[in-house]
Amino acid sequence: MPLLGCNRLSPPSKEALERELLRLQLVSDEEQVLVLEKLWSWLRYESTRRSMVELGILPVLACLIRNGSKEVRVNAVMTLSMLTRGPNLFVESNVGPSILCLLEFLREETDEFAKKEAISGLCRLLYKESHVQIAQRYDLTILRTLTSPFEHVRKKLSELRQKLGLQSSAPSENGSVAKTCAFVNAVETSIPSSSSTSQSLVS
User: Fold this and answer.
1) Which residues in 126-153 are b (16+ Cβ under 10 Å) and which e?
2) Which long-range contacts (CB under 8 A, 24 or more apart) does 72-76 make?
3) Residue 171's pLDDT is what?
4) How far is CA 152 from CA 50, 65, 197, in A?
5) What is the average per-residue pLDDT within 68-88?
6) 126: helix, coil or strand?
7) Helix or strand or coil: residue 155?
8) How far is CA 131 from CA 42, 76, 80, 94, 134, in A?
9) What pTM value is reported for the model?
């Protein structure tokens, strides 16, 4: 079943975006997930991405990533990650808080799909040297120690470390992580995702 808003033939109006952004701050966790799904479905439009940033969605997403339920947090990260597709929506005045909340998310999140979205978002945020310098002001320990049994996550993490000039201090991939990869990959499709929304948004 398509997500709400996926059948739109044109970008939503700025008034519609304002209404949904206001709802996002007032409704319950369950309704927040639905609003985030709708916003996410509109983000294929460049004009919508720009309007959302102009309307002040970034602080709202940062708050949800820090304080929301697990499903809300994952959806908020996916929305922020989609916003990083730009172009050039993130400047020195707003990139720092976005980098920080994604780093905080990675310290706590265990869902591999959500981690990949956060890492991909961080990679795209570092498209300017000044953004790299801002990121380097924060505690990047999690990026040195983070690992994953999934190759696509490790590749994105390696790309992010390269951008930041970091050395990995995670366990060797020839060790316990590598030994579990074949087993985890074999059973991956048989285990339900920890986030039903993750499944819906990639369908």
Assistant:
1) beeeebeebbeeeebeebeebbbbbeeb
2) 72/29, 72/32, 72/33, 72/36, 73/105, 73/109, 73/114, 74/109, 74/111, 74/113, 74/114, 74/195, 74/197, 74/198, 75/32, 75/33, 75/36, 75/37, 75/40, 75/195, 75/197, 75/201, 76/36
3) 62
4) 29, 23, 20
5) 92
6) coil
7) helix
8) 26, 21, 16, 10, 5
9) 0.78
Among the residue ranges 48-62, 86-100, 164-178, 183-197, the one predicted with the least confidence is: 183-197
Residue 172, pLDDT score:
53
Helices (H), 68-111: 70-83, 92-108
Identity of the residue numbered 72:
V
What are the tokens at 53? 């940033």
Residue 182: which pLDDT band, with cuts at 50, 70 and 90? very low
Question: What does DSSP assign to residue 9?
Answer: S
Name the residue among 68, 136, 73, 160 with its Cα closest to residue 110. Answer: 73
